[in-house]
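Consider this today:
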Amino acid sequence: MQFNQERVLERLFKMIKIDSVTKHEGNMTDFLQKYFEDLGYEVYRDEAGKAIGGDHAGNLLLHIPGTIEGEAICLNAHQDTVEPGIGIEPIFENGIVKSAGNTILAADDKSGIAMMMEIHDVLKETGIPHRDLWFLFTIAEENGLLGSKNFDYTKLPAKNILALDAAGYLGDMLISGAGKDDLKATFHGKMAHGGIEPEKGISSIAMVANAIDRVKFGRIDPETTSNLGIIEGGIANNIVCDKASFTCEVRSHSASQITEQIELIKQACYDAAAQFGGTVDVEVDHFCPPHKPDLEGYLTKTMHKALELEGITPVYKVSNGAGDANIFSGHGFNCTNITTGMFAVHTTDEYLDMAVFAQAFNVVWRIITDDLN
């Protein structure tokens, strides 16, 4: 399906120039809400930005009634960007969109938003029948999936969510996405002079070391990893440290394995504290659940066929990354991701390949219009 590249680029550049780093997406939310309301749509906007300690930004949801029967589809993209993302100046050269300065481009994920807007325009211009559609624009994806975690899913009746938020070339299809828990353990000991009376102290650093030594970190099994992140503590070499902490994460494609490994780490912390006569506070953040697309479901099968019709061989893969799709999956939705043609995301070398964007547009078009012949 032919789309208007000049219109896409004009709109994409306009959005890229709207600063919207995580927790400061309010102007982007305002822009999108006004855009669709001016077209006559009723737009649901929540107050997720305030709920997460950000500005007036919010998740946005709107319904585009379908004209053919079949399962409804929700297209999703996120409004926020990583840093450095202030004052971005995009340029277009030889089919590539990139940043003119020392910033990211913000193709992640404004290219996804631009694709959704162009899909809407082409549907209206051509009058081609399509499935019932929902557009969901989330906030704060880049810093903890906070927008999707604070969305009211009773507002969304569609059970299929296609996230236009992936990088690279077309063809990869997700079999499984890892879930993740984060843990922080803070040990409390007793301060003493390290040279004069160390026996009167209780070293929290020693407790940290002992706890870490009790459990395995690294590759746990083929689908599970556990990684130490930060160790903090101590103020001077001659003071027995009374407070020290460590952080770690556990990722797995098995929810039970995440729970099992977290429990092992917690128990190691409690045992270490008891051995040294100190105490420990353990905090666990259930960052996101594993993401398990329904490989026999409508969305996966349709994407597979749409890719083949575009001359692309689907390749099924697992991912240890995380995104809004993990949260959607945890709420019972069947979801997967598709690239928009962005590369080198989260770096100042980020760019958008419009040839890949065009291919992705065609795949999404086939999915929502049942153009599968």
The two ends are 14 Å apart (CA to CA). The CA atoms of residues 123 and 143 lie 33 Å apart. The mean pLDDT is 97. The chain has two domains: 5-177+291-369, 179-288.
